[in-house]
Amino acid sequence: xxxxxxxxxALTDAEMHYCPGCTHGIIHKLVAETxxxxxxxxxxxxxxxxxxxxxxxxxxxxxxHEAAHGRAPAVATGIxxxxxxxxxxxxxxxxxxxxIGTAEIVHAAMRGEKITTIFVxxxxxxxxxxxxxxxxxxxxKTTTAPFGRSFExxxxxxxxxxxxxxxxxxxxxERVTVTTPAHIAKAKRAIKKAFQIQDEGxxxxxxxxxxxxxxxxxxxxVEALSWLNETMIPAFPLSVFRDxxxxxx
Amino acid sequence: xxxxxxxxxALTDAEMHYCPGCTHGIIHKLVAETxxxxxxxxxxxxxxxxxxxxxxxxxxxxxxHEAAHGRAPAVATGIxxxxxxxxxxxxxxxxxxxxIGTAEIVHAAMRGEKITTIFVxxxxxxxxxxxxxxxxxxxxKTTTAPFGRSFExxxxxxxxxxxxxxxxxxxxxERVTVTTPAHIAKAKRAIKKAFQIQDEGxxxxxxxxxxxxxxxxxxxxVEALSWLNETMIPAFPLSVFRDxxxxxx
Amino acid sequence: MAYNEILISGFGGQGVMAIGxxxxxxxxxxxxxxxxxxxxxxEMRGGTANCGVVIADSEIISPIVLEPSELIAMNxxxxxxxxxxxxxxxxxxxxxxxxxxxxxxxxVRAIYVPSMEIASGIGNMRVANMAMLGAFIKxxxxxxxxxxxxxxxxxxxxxxxxxxxxxxxxxxxxAACVD
Amino acid sequence: MAYNEILISGFGGQGVMAIGxxxxxxxxxxxxxxxxxxxxxxEMRGGTANCGVVIADSEIISPIVLEPSELIAMNxxxxxxxxxxxxxxxxxxxxxxxxxxxxxxxxVRAIYVPSMEIASGIGNMRVANMAMLGAFIKxxxxxxxxxxxxxxxxxxxxxxxxxxxxxxxxxxxxAACVD
Amino acid sequence: xxxxxxxxxDRCKGCGLCxxxxxxxxxxxxxxxxxxxxxxxxxxxxxxxxIACANCARMCPDSIITVERx
Amino acid sequence: xxxxxxxxxDRCKGCGLCxxxxxxxxxxxxxxxxxxxxxxxxxxxxxxxxIACANCARMCPDSIITVERx
Amino acid sequence: xxxxxxKGNEAVAEAAIRAGCRCYFGYPITPQSExxxxxxxxxxxxxxxxxxxxxxxxxINMVYGASGAGARVMTSSSSPxxxxxxEGISYMCGAExxxxxxxxxxxxxxxxxxxxxxxxYFQATRGGGNGDYRLIVLAPATIQEVxxxxxxxxxxxxQYRIPVMMLLDGMIGQMMEPVEWTHTPASDLPGKTWATxxxxxxxxxxxxxxxxxxxxxxxRHNQHLEEKYKKIIENEIKYSINDLVDAEILxxxxxxxxxxxxxxxxxxxxxxxxxxxxxxxSVWPYPYDALREAASQxxxxxxxxxxxxxxxMVDDVRIGVNGVKPVSFIGQAGGVIPSPREVADAAxxxxxR
Amino acid sequence: xxxxxxKGNEAVAEAAIRAGCRCYFGYPITPQSExxxxxxxxxxxxxxxxxxxxxxxxxINMVYGASGAGARVMTSSSSPxxxxxxEGISYMCGAExxxxxxxxxxxxxxxxxxxxxxxxYFQATRGGGNGDYRLIVLAPATIQEVxxxxxxxxxxxxQYRIPVMMLLDGMIGQMMEPVEWTHTPASDLPGKTWATxxxxxxxxxxxxxxxxxxxxxxxRHNQHLEEKYKKIIENEIKYSINDLVDAEILxxxxxxxxxxxxxxxxxxxxxxxxxxxxxxxSVWPYPYDALREAASQxxxxxxxxxxxxxxxMVDDVRIGVNGVKPVSFIGQAGGVIPSPREVADAAxxxxxR
Lengths: 249, 249, 179, 179, 70, 70, 353, 353
Ligand SMILES: Cc1ncc(C[n+]2csc(CCOP(=O)(O)OP(=O)(O)O)c2C)c(N)n1
Ligand SMILES: Cc1ncc(C[n+]2csc(CCOP(=O)(O)OP(=O)(O)O)c2C)c(N)n1
Ligand code: SF4
Ligand code: SF4
Ligand code: SF4
Ligand code: SF4
Ligand code: SF4
Ligand code: SF4
Ligand SMILES: [Mg+2]
Ligand SMILES: [Mg+2]
Fold this sequence. Notes:
The complex is a heterooctamer, with two copies of chain A, two copies of chain C, two copies of chain E and two copies of chain G.
Chain C: E1 3-11, H1 16-29, E2 33-40, E3 48-56, E4 70-73, H2 76-82, E5 91-95, E6 109-113, H3 115-122, H4 128-140, H5 145-155, H6 162-175
Parallel strand pairs in C: 1-4, 4-5, 5-6
Antiparallel strand pairs in C: 1-3, 2-3
Chain E: E1 3-7, H1 17-21, E2 27-29, E3 42-44, H2 55-59, E4 65-69
Antiparallel strand pairs in E: 1-4, 2-3
Chain G: E1 4-7, H1 8-18, E2 23-26, H2 34-42, E3 49-52, H3 56-68, E4 73-77, H4 79-84, H5 86-95, E5 99-105, H6 121-127, E6 136-138, H7 143-160, E7 163-169, H8 170-174, E8 176-179, E9 207-208, H9 215-235, E10 239-242, E11 249-252, H10 256-270, E12 275-280, E13 282-284, H11 288-296, E14 302-307, H12 314-321, E15 327-331, H13 340-350
Parallel strand pairs in G: 2-3, 2-4, 4-5, 5-7, 6-7, 11-12, 11-14, 14-15
Antiparallel strand pairs in G: 1-8, 6-13, 10-12
Helix pairs in contact in G: 1-2, 1-7, 3-5, 10-13, 11-12
């Protein structure tokens, strides 16, 4: 009897506090599995954000540092410069990374910090109760955009992968999702590649993962998967936006 | 006897504090002339940065608001939402806009704020005495990069025009310079177009102007012009990066 | 002189906050001073929550209910946590549908309400909290039954008007648990 | 007991800070207590700047020179601004190359040094400040001439060694202005 | 190619994502059981139909599913 | 097409940008004059050679040049 | 007018709108997100501006701009978010711009907890930002008072050209109490002739600025601000006193703890110990003199400060009491609410009983 | 060892390197940019890290990360930049991480001026950030003291797991004085077993965190911090007293103004008035008891606080003196330095002469 799948050793036994069916949990697994696959768990330091993933420090079975809202890339920069041979990653939501933390992520990318950022884009501020995020879709209703995000007032959602891909220090940028087993497999490959490129010291790496927030979208977890596939992906195309290992070949 | 050129009415009689030959002064003139040409001086509110242009409030002959370092786009946003029929512009250096103020400029662009940003890129922190800027060229020596900016440590200079051009809310983004009378004429056209698009309410507009800092570059003003032309322009190509009026046609 | 300090506690989703709000609104419309103060547990989703309601005909000094005169315990952790703090001579309303144990103290009055059975009997699980409220009103005589009905009638209009009846029935059946 | 509070003031670029630093370094190497405090005017570029140097054989209390015992005025605004603050019996060194007027106070000693003429005579405009320093040393007898020479010799070596001589000459010609 | 699937039912949040992705549709939420968290946990009766694809386990956000190949 | 160029010499910073861009090379910094700011101001002697192109004025960062066409 | 049950956070927002606030900039944070959410829903009805900013820093700088442009403007946040606004607040004080800033305090330090606390007293009253400046800081204890002070906050801001902070503990933000909406007639306030609204070619340019590069000018500006602060100290101190007659204990507390102190006083009364409660309503300007006077009353044997913190306002109590009576402190931090029982015990300890 | 003439800012940087600091993150701002510039030039020699960050906020959060990873780390800035670090400082205090933060104060509020001032005393000693926390704050008055305290600052930080702030007025940053470099042997400090350096599979994960969502846990954490702060108050108070014998006037001043006060004391001495100077070196923990004791001395008739601000430390002086003697204040703000003459006059006024 062979085990086909079991919980990753890189996750602690703590029960996760995420809402039922929230795909934050799936993304955690992929990161954890990658740390095991690449055999870097013991030399990894993760940086947790402020957002629904704030308790990520309780879930990953490696050293963890809880950052202030938006500042995870700066914290990771501090860690990596002290410990250049360690594997350092940040795990950040769209409010954290694309709103308050815009400057920090842009500059970590510019400096080509050898870190990996897992960017969980769920088009909303999950933790604080469903307010508008910079990634909220035009027309999408949130508690602070009760009539739907208006283009006239707030513009269109920001596409961070595309934006960061304009920066030379970024070595690898891909956008994926986890709404189907196939997507999950692809997301896993992206995350693995990002960590590999980090360990090769080639520069900043980020995987943006489109994720659901059934609670604040007001949907069942399964409905949320469909909404993501049908409505979010067109606004946030899945693609590799930068890969300097390709150029080199 | 016809006057071919005289000091713009949109500049006060105050003597400017800029170093001899610093092209900040030329850029001031172009903005001033534009306000007169478009007949918007009386309805203009300018936002001055923290940087060598901090005293811009003494030079422009319109209402002026001095912002905290990097926050000019937020200040301008506040003003414009209160007074949507006014012409609002920010005048910012590369430290101000591309370092500490990264989040504010990105989000003003995302929201499509109907403001015009004049972005003076001189590849250095002028006011504080020549420290490295995010736009400092690789290899360029500064007081905080005494051995020259290293790509390994700091990455390559950030290209804000290109970065902001990935954002839907940006209506017009161009990079120009003022090192020759021909460049000056072109820069003037760009600035004029940006203000026009602002007044048409089409979105965020920015003109990045490559500018000299003879003092901190350690050059004569004329040498500085050549260095800019020969060394900076290749790193910061002059071009229109976004123009939504073009698409519409 | 009325100065009631009421604590309502249970799982998120059991209508704990709504019971409190209804009490506060009713108290206010009967001309009394009221306050309502929610407290959410450390868990950010699910978990236990409670609210304190003060209803008084004099000035309300503190809105914080630490030693309630009445406790409405919707689940076991709530009863465990707050039973010791109820004032001597106070009343504890126990949601006996999911609380297996009895009140242990001898110096308080205990009232047992099978709220979920009542609700499922009426055919709408969402009125379980109204059964608790009914018992409360009957036992304390603090508020008029009519005040609640009037509030319900205001709240549910149009297509929702039929809910008034359901709620009323829950109130009554809850009240019937008080002997 | 020496407790000299010296103020050196002039345009940026006149070597004001360098005079002060040289004094402080020399004082230190002669075993005295010293402090050097620069003050830049509100203009960020150009404009007037000054520095205060305290040289004492006792503990230096405050490094801030508000009432100098010696003032070295390199330009007119400096003389205008600080002449009134010089201590009674103090000394004012006037860069007479660009200061047209005389010292007005009768209770201080005034020494006039044509620093720029001296410098151009030597053939290097950058030694003008050394002429002022020479006058200062001669007049105050606070520091040894040799100390300065030794410092210069340490500073200028190799291809710059010839500057020692120029500076020395400037010091001497400045000293000659003191009668 | 049969599989064996185990759930840590006490931790199941009844989100239904495993149900959704099972290609052979054998997982269901057991409404007869309410776990300590108040949810109806996922379960399988027709285990012999399982093809051990592990879709369910890969999808489960709470990592409570283990899949073995018999 | 001759021009007349005036400088507010007291405000000139002697940066030489006008000198640099004058197509007919008639502007020079007058070393015989030191203005109140301590600079040698720009000046023109051969004014009749000026073609009133205003390059100098457009380039002057301190806006101290006025150009007229005679 | 009839009473209505209002939640503190929503009452803050509604009261601001009724006070003529037409401009809100803010960033979500628990436990005050109902304020921006209420504004998002209702500001548009008034033709006003609601904008969710990219950060608290952007929000305060938008407020800076909007206030400069002459608007009645506010922002709100909770503790860590308020920390981020400190530079902006310092700028607004320097540039003398009016605005209302609401801090619904949660437990700290750092991320702390989302439960109610009072750990930001120092930050609010001493200036968490750089330089010598003050805010007017108002600390209501009931929702009705929240509502009443909100109008006053905007008026004071405009009258003195100063930011006014509403310092609420998270409890006040979350609780509900009846509110009676009274219509306050508009105050007679100076016109905003300094605002940057465009010259229209009719006046010299207005400049909003906090830079005074010349130290003498900067010092003069600071002395000018000092004068203004003195005027505020003279005219705008607010406090309330309960049960001072024959009090042996004088509790000092602001916000919700003042209500705990009154509950403690009732418990003490049951034991025959008389206790009064001194409640600063303006915590800057602080009612030092009134407090000293109350403490000086012969019957008072000890002054006990009650806070939801590890002791911050107690500094002001010491300054006010100035040694005339012993001062002690009782409090809990991090979201824990001290019970009236332990407050009463602390008082007994202070009395040596 | 021979004395060398050092500029304050450069001495700070050199002393940090000698104290084992191997990590610097900062953002330029006048009047302290010589610190990062010196670090840029010399940190590499030691194999250490110098990184210019994109902002002060990024800098303090890099410090947060580097400190968590076990490094001896510092940042420096000046007033407005320090305002921006407040959230980060609050986090570091919450997470109990050591670091040294240098503030070379300039005039405020807002952009203010680049001239020296002391307007950030409240921010430094009361916490400009959210929540109940403290920093150790050291305020040297000479360059030699800067250098000596720098080593101590790093050691205290590590010993107590607390950020230590060096609070310098801009004057100390810019001036030059002779320095004697003495070699302090490394202190016996606890190992950083809590650092996030990677588990290597050999220990359970370490977590650096300031979040305590459960209020009881958060309160316990606050009480734990309180205990630590009490220990620091017991052990780490530093001050100096000059000329207390028979003093009629007691000046209280920190940093450069303490030297002005001594100059004023000399002027007063010439007029036959004896004046002593009490100088807190640690402004947190503040030497309240020592100050009260000094002020209680019979000869002392008045206590006069001297600051380069409109009056901030005077609050602590009042708390310390606690009414035993009258307390008054003399100061100038915005970069203006009060003259010994006016300080002496203020003293005479306080004496009623
Ligand atoms: C300085 C600061 N501002 C605001 C907050 C409140 N806050 C906590 S999480 C969050 C946003 C969370 O959204 P996101 O980053 O998208 O993560 P998600 O919860 O959606 O996964 C905010 C605004 C905070 N804790 N600190
Ligand atoms: C919060 C804050 N940080 C830092 C500074 C110091 N500072 C003033 S201007 C400046 C950078 C100026 O560079 P840039 O924006 O490129 O303008 P330039 O002077 O080159 O035109 C800095 C860092 C400040 N005033 N405020
Ligand atoms: S609020 Fe949304 S993002 Fe947060 S745990 Fe719940 S579903 Fe996930
Ligand atoms: S420092 Fe540079 S940018 Fe600033 S005024 Fe001088 S030359 Fe211009
Ligand atoms: S392993 Fe595959 S077939 Fe078996 S239960 Fe899971 S999803 Fe269904
Ligand atoms: S995916 Fe996991 S948590 Fe969700 S229902 Fe299935 S087993 Fe339960
Ligand atoms: S106008 Fe043209 S030709 Fe005449 S001086 Fe100027 S640059 Fe030369
Ligand atoms: S460009 Fe202007 S400032 Fe420069 S030298 Fe010519 S006239 Fe003078
Ligand atoms: Mg999100
Ligand atoms: Mg620049």
